[in-house]
């Protein structure tokens, strides 16, 4: 059979078909590749979108959780305060100094009968009272303690100890009374259960304080701490802040206890300001259950941020209201030395240390101080050059004659015993005439350091005076107990 030969036309037609087939194949492959790529892009876009949605959801949830966390802290901090407190507080100006009232409520002090505050003496009274002047621009803080037994007139409640203001009218009334008493406007309020002192210290991992003298209080707090630098936990810090009877031999135990409280607060401040923001908020959360304040967590954190870099060792100043003790109507009171108090608060309001010299601080050399404070006294009370000298260092030895110029029998004997317990050789006698004010007189510059030790032991902010010839010269130091003391 003859084989049919393809004509050129037929041959060319088959080539076209092959070419078309190849083209179709390439086009199909390209379509598949395009489709696959498109699906991959869609899948990637979908995955990316899902990741973004997930991340956004997590951010929203984290924000909601943080908001809930902050709300929880704020509820603890500000909840339970009387609504009339805001009317007793004044507004602050950005960057300007302001005052915070700090009240410590100690429910272990036998004041736990009745409501937390109300119209009964059996309600809780403020166990410690402290004014804090806060200067954000200069990064300085001044802590001034007010003696809880200070005698004041509470109007319709009559003459009372100043710590009764909280029992009678709560935070608002206490703020009004203390603002009037100190002569300054108060912008913020903070109330801490003294058990919260332990939580505050534990929250920052403990604090270190210097104890110039041993703290022995076996009957009340059980403390037995040696002199020197001590790193203490929360429980020990809280007991140190309560241990007024550890200083009975020095006279006014509340004077030294208040100084211990300031030292602990300064040590906590140092730790908090050195922490990062997250740790700071967590610390506030830990303490929130024991603190009531008008400030929310954002205000506190913002304020702390402004004070970052602050040198707590030099820029925290401290002091205490100058008082003298008086036995009246079968009760011991502290009588404010009004002129000295006004002078102190005037210095504080100007941003100066409460005391002109270290030696003016009656708690110096006895009570605790923050471990970083200068060896000469509490942080911020270093010598200012206003009459300071080497003889400003107190000593606790030498002969002292105590003369009773008050109307209280046995007053000189009691003071002489206190001085003997401190290390002095003290005798008691009756003054030739009545005196209205208490004086510490010294004979010669060599006796000044002993006179400073006597004044600090007695407390009350009495400054020694050189004998101008009006008193005896046969004894180094003479104490004249005036009517303002007993």
Describe the 3D structure.
This protein has 486 residues and is α/β, with parallel strands linked by helices. It folds into three domains: 34 residues; 304 residues, Aminopeptidase (3-Layer(aba) Sandwich); 83 residues, Alpha-Beta Plaits. Helix content is 40%, strand content 20%. It has twelve helices and 20 strands. The strands form six sheets. A six-stranded mixed β-sheet has the order 11-6-1-2-3-12, with helices on both faces. Strands 17-16-20-18-19 form a five-stranded mixed β-sheet, with helices on one face. It has a three-stranded antiparallel β-sheet with strand order 10-7-15. β13 and β14 form a beta hairpin. α4 crosses α5 and α4 packs antiparallel against α7. It is elongated, with a radius of gyration of 36 Å. It starts with 7 loop residues before the first helix and ends in a 5-residue tail after the last strand. About 7% of the residues have low confidence.
């Amino acid at each position: 059979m003859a084989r049919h030969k393809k004509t050129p036309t037929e041959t060319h037609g088959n080539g076209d078909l092959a070419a078309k087939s190849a083209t179709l194949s390439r086009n199909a492959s390209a379509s598949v590749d395009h489709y696959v790529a498109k699906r991959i892009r869609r899948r990637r876009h979908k995955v990316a979108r899902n990741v973004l949605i997930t991340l956004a959801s997590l951010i929203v949830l984290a924000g909601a959780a943080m908001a809930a966390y902050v709300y929880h802290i704020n509820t603890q901090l500000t909840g339970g305060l009387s609504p009339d407190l805001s009317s007793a507080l004044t507004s602050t100006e950005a960057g300007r100094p302001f005052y915070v009232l700090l009240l410590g409520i100690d429910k272990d002090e036998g004041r736990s009968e009745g409501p937390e505050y109300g119209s009964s003496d059996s309600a809780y009274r403020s166990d410690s009272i402290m004014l804090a002047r806060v200067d954000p621009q200069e990064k300085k803080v001044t802590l001034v303690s007010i003696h809880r037994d200070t005698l004041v007139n509470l109007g319709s409640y009559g003459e009372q100890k100043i710590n009764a203001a909280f029992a009678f009218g709560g935070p608002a009334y206490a703020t009004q009374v203390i603002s009037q008493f100190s002569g300054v406007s108060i912008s913020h309020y903070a109330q801490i259960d003294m058990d919260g002192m332990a939580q505050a210290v534990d929250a920052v991992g403990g604090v270190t304080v210097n104890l110039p003298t041993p703290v022995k209080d076996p009957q009340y707090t059980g403390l037995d701490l040696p002199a020197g630098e001590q790193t203490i936990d929360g429980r020990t810090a809280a007991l140190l802040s309560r241990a007024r009877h550890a200083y009975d031999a020095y006279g006014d135990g509340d004077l030294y206890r208040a100084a211990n409280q300031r030292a602990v607060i300064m040590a906590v401040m140092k730790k908090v300001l050195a922490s990062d923001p997250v740790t700071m908020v967590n610390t506030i959360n830990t303490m929130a259950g024991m603190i009531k304040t008008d400030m929310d967590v954002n205000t506190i954190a913002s304020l702390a941020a402004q004070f970052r870099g602050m040198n707590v060792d030099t820029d925290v100043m401290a002091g205490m209201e100058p008082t003298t003790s008086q036995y009246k109507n079968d009760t011991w009171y502290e009588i404010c030395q009004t002129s000295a108090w006004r002078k102190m608060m005037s210095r504080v309001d100007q941003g100066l240390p409460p005391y002109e010299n270290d030696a003016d601080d009656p708690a110096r050399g006895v009570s605790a101080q923050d471990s970083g404070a200068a060896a000469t006294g509490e942080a911020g009370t270093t010598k200012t050059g206003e009459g300071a000298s080497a003889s400003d260092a107190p000593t606790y030895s030498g002969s002292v004659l105590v003369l009773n110029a008050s109307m209280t029998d046995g007053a000189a004997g009691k003071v002489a015993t206190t001085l003997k317990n401190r290390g002095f050789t003290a005798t008691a006698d009756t003054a030739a005439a009545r005196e209205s004010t208490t004086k510490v007189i010294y004979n010669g510059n060599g006796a000044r350091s002993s006179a400073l030790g006597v004044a600090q032991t007695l407390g009350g902010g009495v400054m020694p005076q050189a004998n101008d010839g009006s008193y005896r010269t046969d004894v180094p130091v003479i104490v004249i107990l005036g009517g303002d003391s007993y």
